[in-house]
Batch of 4 targets.
Target 1
Amino acid sequence: MDYTAAQSGFRQQPDMRQRTGAMDGSDGSQLFEDTSGVGFGPQTGNQPAGPQAAGFAGQTLLSDPMSNLAMAYGSSLATQGREMVDKNLDRFIPISKLKYYFAVDTVYVGKKLGLLVFPYMHENWEVSYQQDTPVAPRFDVNAPDLYIPAMGFITYVLVAGLALGTQNRFSPELLGVQASSAFVWLIMEVLAVLLSLYLVTVNTDLTTIDLLAFSGYKYVGMIVGVVAGLLFGRPAYYLSLLWCCVAIFVFMIRTLRLKLLSEAAAEGRLVRGTRNQLRMYLTMSIAAAQPIFMYWLTYHLIR
């Protein structure tokens, strides 16, 4: 009987292992399904994963009304800031009009350089207008431009470096001092003319850029003088600089008198009056200052 019990117990042990294995398999399968269901939900073949899931998340973020409101507010602030900067800059320097002063071509540059060096044969000094707007410089040699002054300033700095190099005095610091001093003198000259126009109460259509252009034309004569001095010595420097100083004086007188003097005085008729005399003195002073600056900025480059 004991042998039967033992035998029956021996026979029942595999059934228990089978039930235990079935239970373990069932629990393991259920455990895997519960974990995936709680964390991510049922997996399907059409569900995006990886970067696509991140893209959908970004779209969800962008579709948030608060995010759209913040983006719109930031864009409006940027637009207002840009308009404020443009408005404040146009009060002093009309940036939008700079294209007009660089509307030049090769023919205009050649004629203008000839006029700056030899202005004695030129008769008509009036700027042409088209529907109350001055024509572009490439159509009128009398119109002021910024191309020649800008290129003249750069060329002057390069020629100054060449002159210093031939004298074994070249250094980047000295060249920087030369360029910065020329630029500072130019700005001070323009500011002095603006202050003089304000004190004399002259009603003129001259803008700040016009004065900057007229003041920058003297670099052409300075370049001619320094190059002549480097090629032919100090006497050639003085002769060429003297010629260019007289030429720029005549050029400034004939150009500015149409802008500063009254119509009768500009035509050559005698006009009495304190205000017209002040305008004439101011015109003479602006023209006379050009040779002074030309000599001051070049005499130390020739030895």
Target 2
Amino acid sequence: MAPLRFSANVSWLFSELPGLPERLHAAGRAGFEAAEVAWPYAEPPQALASAARAAGLRLVLINTPRGDHEKGEMGLGAVPGRQEAFREGLEQAVLYAKALGCPRIHLMAGRVPRGAARAAVKGEMEMVFVENLRHAAGVLAQENLVGLLEPINTRITDPQYFLDTPQQAAAILQKVGRPNLQLQMDIFHWQIMDGNLTGNVREFLPIVGHVQVAQVPDRGEPGSSGELDFTYLFQLLEDEGYQGFVGCEYRPRGDTVEGLSWLRSYWDRRGHPRTGQ
């Protein structure tokens, strides 16, 4: 069984450092071979690409733009009346993905509109999402890119988010029926919404294109105290033959590098990807 490959989410890690280029450099120094960025759009794509190259990193994931942050938007994929803005954001994401050599884009679903009841708008939002995803799949296929759907928990993190369980996401993927759209499994969100991680990992892993990890409930390092046993979960992912990246999307409780002791001990046990040991 091949060891897992880890990616530093530099929107979350190395927040001691001011900008994304500095954080990419720090991730490379800490031993990562890959990185992901939630929203790279404040930096010119070429500057980020050269910072990643200099750090010896490949970029493996970015998100589509949030939309109007001041209006509380968090992605636009399923938001009625925002189809045009979703498509423009997708074009921007594709431009960045190509410049960065990044193969995956998380297609953010977005929030139930303010003042609307989820039950009342769910059908319409799903229709909008399916239509937007079919469009996105075509655009992404032309560039040989993969689109990802990520359920985000509505219990703690984002009560208004439209897509909140793996079951809902898998059903939408089935409706859309495009091979270059896959599931993004953030174990933090899945545990909070549904638990049953062993069963859900085994059921959904065949359609998973990216994994993310954080401890529950505080969203700290996988090695920190909490509900999840990551030694077991990493072994499960290995046993099930997961080939993709595991994104470190957590909130370090102190210094990022000191907090990576859990990863260094994994590399000590399973071999470091860069040294081949």
Target 3
Amino acid sequence: MDLQPSDFDRLLFFEHARKNAEATYAQNPLDADNLTRWAGALLELSQFQSVIESKKMILDSIAKLEEALLINPKKHDALWCLGNAYTSHAFLNPNQDEAKSYFDKASVYFKQAVDEDPGNELYLKSLEVTAKAPELYAEIHKHGFVQQTTGAAEPSASSSTKTSKETKSSDLKYDIFGWVILVVGIVAWAGFAKSHIPPTPPPR
């Protein structure tokens, strides 16, 4: 996937956000807001990685969100981000039964976020959209998305064919992540706007 200028700006912004959150955590590991910002940055950065690295980042994000919820179980933005993380993880799982369990977890966390902040339209929309996620998952995997993006060793007719497949699958991965993760940037940016460390401007 070739990065557009706006994508590169986002990559730099969220890498900066990740480093700031990591430094803040070293000083105060009990800051639930910081843990949520860190997790949100990891989710955004996962869009720009290979499938294997994306999974690692998503799992790291889930661990940080769970840590934040141990500190503040009613933190609705962390609950919502956790729903996004599980949705993303489900899309990258080739096992349909396992993916369904992740979608179910996502629905639970989206519902909890709505319960904690009933008037939040973003949370309500996420809960509505995640109900359609298994259908999209089935369509994506029917076209061999995971096999194409996991880098499995397969003989190819030519390097040009392989490149074409990689380009298409990479673009598809970006589309998948876009609908569930892009909005995480709203939470991450809002958090940094209130932080003591001046962030870089959000991407235009």
Target 4
Amino acid sequence: MADDTKFLLLFFLLSSSLLCFGSEHDIQCLKSVQQSVIDTDGVLKSTWNFEHETEGFICQFAGVECWHPDENRVLSLRLDNLGLEGPFPQGLQYCSSMTGLNLSNNKFSGPMPTDISRQLQQLTSLDLSHNSFSGSIPPSITNMIYLNLLNLQHNQLSGQIPSQLDLLTRLTTFNVAENLLSGPVPRSLAVFPASNFDGNQGLCDSPLGECSRKRWMPIRINDMSSIGAAVGFVLGFVVAFYFPHCFVCSERLRAYVVRII
């Protein structure tokens, strides 16, 4: 009986220490986010006050949803439509229990983090739509195996959609419309409507039109033929101009050839 009591006490002490440790990390997460973004409207500056740290105080912050109102553990961040600017926010990896991140309808720019899956391991929902994120979609995003929603529409993302997105078997919402993407749409994403891929002139394959070399290969056969013909014409003209005796066999035509000595 005494051993059972000791075990329970040890369990509760360990749980309490882990909870405290997690809470400190979540607070650090929000501090890093606040410091790394450009808050033009002052929303985060005015509502995220870290001066008096109590149980659940971060749950009162604008855009912060907690697992429990009396617990400093972030469930999701909904920072959409706040006029935020700058690169992708820093410190999000400290919100280790966060399952949702919404940064849509702001003015964020620059690339998505290459290690986004390490920073946001538990996410089920990621909405970065209606910003100015650029560069490619990081392949590591395919390691975010719990994702149900991935919205990237209305940005400046380029390159191809990672083929490894086939691994995200839980996706029920996916949108990359109005970007600069090219290449074939991964087969597993063909279940989504064509409108979710619109505005990317280089994208092809189901649910869009069939891919062809002419649509998205960087070097095309027709182009090579045209270049070859042009080079051949210029080379022939130069040789004929400087070495007319090699080409003009008729005495009647030879008179019209001007030689430069």
